[in-house]
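Fill in residues.
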């Protein structure tokens, strides 16, 4: 009877593993072909399960409980199983922000990760917090291209360039590579010392600098007996990331067998990319949010299979309960007080009219100030439609802040000319009317109306708008007349200077406005990014309250501050 049950279990396992995995093997000429039978792990196979860009999605799609269940299934086939993560696991939802990443490290420890790399968003909580997270992580973080040149203690000293793991008589070298874009795709000041000098770098001076550093590390692995070299990368394949894409890395190095990738959220069951010697290298990426589990199999005869597991529905009960306990604690912490406000910050008028979409408001001033202070930009703009709740006088909780910015947009800073800023203000003010109305919604309101910091302007409603938009509502041009006038920029000495259409300013906002052209404000979409999708929007507000205001929103926000005049 026992033998029959084992045979049934083996058959069910084979079906589960075969039905859900797409990928390729060494004999596959093109990536993405289904090779199910060859991807069922056998005894003595080495199986490396990988995730990337989970972004706090602890219980969506397959989820961490599903990942544990799948690993346990594989471990019934072979004892040689490793679990690795390719970055951006610790940020992406409120559960990460509230715990500054600690809940995610706790969960990953419980899941049983062996190795991980730092994605750009692992840096979003600052170096001091990241140093703490590394200290409590059971996974060994890897990063061969992270360089520290400062004189103080290196907060990333726990990160190793590579690690060699033995599975029976086979050795696998794991090499970590973090994107050089981390500096602009997190918060640049985190990589500086107190004097403003960069002390952390990622071999990003050129593509060749990165390739040479990785090549040197790969050769060290080989010299120390690694039979296979697997690169755990957070590089991505987006064209905008050239020359730091995983495909660029492969094409300019040798000695790598497989690159497991993250950063661009790409779903790559398996691509085969030629290295500098014309040899095949496997490339795979599991998408985002645990929609898939990556699986790399090194068979006992040396054959390599790689692909993605999708649609796996089983859950490990213990892991499910562990996550549930953390989520219960997280819900309690939403009520944790993070600051106190001496004043009420509101989107509304005294008579209950929503003003944030057609007039300056004190909460609009507060939000825009947060973006400017945290980013260090000259100017900040926040669309009124993205400010969704008030902050009452008194204690301010995490939940209160998340309600203000619930969308999870990310901080961006762009270089823009004064003319582009003028066009943005004209576009955003095209619907503004002299009266505010007496209903719940203001007359002439526009979700793209800009609340500002470091900027002051007047809207002359007697001038009809001359803004032209295309069929999709995107900005095209401004005619001969403009209703926005008397535009001033706050200078470093605290005085107001007329905006210079020819001058370049740094403008802080979020990805919805800067990169996606939200509300038709497309004038910044092709500009140079100084910060490219850094910390989350509500995290910006929390950081401003706690770090800049020292937990106290004062009387300076009792009223709107006279930045926008409507006449």
């Amino acid at each position: 009877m026992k033998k029959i049950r084992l045979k049934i279990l083996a058959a069910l396992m084979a079906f589960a593993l075969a039905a859900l995995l797409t990928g390729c093997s060494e004999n596959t000429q093109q990536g993405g072909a289904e090779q199910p039978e060859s991807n069922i792990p056998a005894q003595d196979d080495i199986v490396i399960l990988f995730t990337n860009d989970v972004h706090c999605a602890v219980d969506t799609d397959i989820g961490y409980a599903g990942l544990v269940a799948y690993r346990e299934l594989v471990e019934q086939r072979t004892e040689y199983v490793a679990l690795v993560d390719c970055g951006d696991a610790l940020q992406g939802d409120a559960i990460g922000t509230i715990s500054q990443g600690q809940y995610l490290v706790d969960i990953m420890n419980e899941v049983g990760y062996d190795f991980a790399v730092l994605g750009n968003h692992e840096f979003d909580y600052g170096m001091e917090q990241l140093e703490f997270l590394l200290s409590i992580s059971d996974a060994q973080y890897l990063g061969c291209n992270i360089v520290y040149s400062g004189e103080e203690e290196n907060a990333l000293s726990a990160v190793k360039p590579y690690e060699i793991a033995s599975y029976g008589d086979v050795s696998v070298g794991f090499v970590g590579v973090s994107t050089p874009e981390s500096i602009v795709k997190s918060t640049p000041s985190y990589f500086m010392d107190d004097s403003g000098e960069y002390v952390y770098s990622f071999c990003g001076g050129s593509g060749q600098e990165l390739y040479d550093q990785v090549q040197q590390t790969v050769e060290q692995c080989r010299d120390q007996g690694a039979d296979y070299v697997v690169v755990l990368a957070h590089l991505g394949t987006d064209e905008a990331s050239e020359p730091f894409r995983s495909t660029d890395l492969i094409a300019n190095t040798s000695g790598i067998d497989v690159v497991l990738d993250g950063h661009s959220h790409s779903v790559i069951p398996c691509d085969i990319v030629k290295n500098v010697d014309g040899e095949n290298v496997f490339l795979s990426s599991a998408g985002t949010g645990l929609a898939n589990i990556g699986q790399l199999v090194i068979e006992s005869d040396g054959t390599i299979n790689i692909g993605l597991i999708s649609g796996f529905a089983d859950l490990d009960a213990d892991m499910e309960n562990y996550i549930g306990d953390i989520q219960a604690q997280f819900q309690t912490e939403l009520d944790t007080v993070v600051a106190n406000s001496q004043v009420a910050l509101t989107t509304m008028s005294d008579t209950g009219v929503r003003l944030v979409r057609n007039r300056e408001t004190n909460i609009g001033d507060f939000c825009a100030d947060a973006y400017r202070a945290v980013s260090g930009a000259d100017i900040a703009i926040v669309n009124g439609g993205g400010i969704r709740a008030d902050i009452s006088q008194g204690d301010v909780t995490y939940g209160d802040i998340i309600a203000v910015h619930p969308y999870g947009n990310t901080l961006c800073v762009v270089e823009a000319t004064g003319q582009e800023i003028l066009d943005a203000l004209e576009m955003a003010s095209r619907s503004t009317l002299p009266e505010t109305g007496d209903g719940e919604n203001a007359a002439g309101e526009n979700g793209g109306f800009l609340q500002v910091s470091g900027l002051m302007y007047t809207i002359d409603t007697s001038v009809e708008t001359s803004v032209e938009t295309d069929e999709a509502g995107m900005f095209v041009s401004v005619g001969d007349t403009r209703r926005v006038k008397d535009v001033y920029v706050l200078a470093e000495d605290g005085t107001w200077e007329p905006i210079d259409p020819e001058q370049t300013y740094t403008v802080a906002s979020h990805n919805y406005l800067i990169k996606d052209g939200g509300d038709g404000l497309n004038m910044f979409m092709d500009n140079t990014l100084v910060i490219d999708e850094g910390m989350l929007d509500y995290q910006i507000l929390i950081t401003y309250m706690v770090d800049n205001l020292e937990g106290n929103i004062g009387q300076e926000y009792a009223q709107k501050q006279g930045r926008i005049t409507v006449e």
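Residues 2-20 form the longest helix (19 residues).
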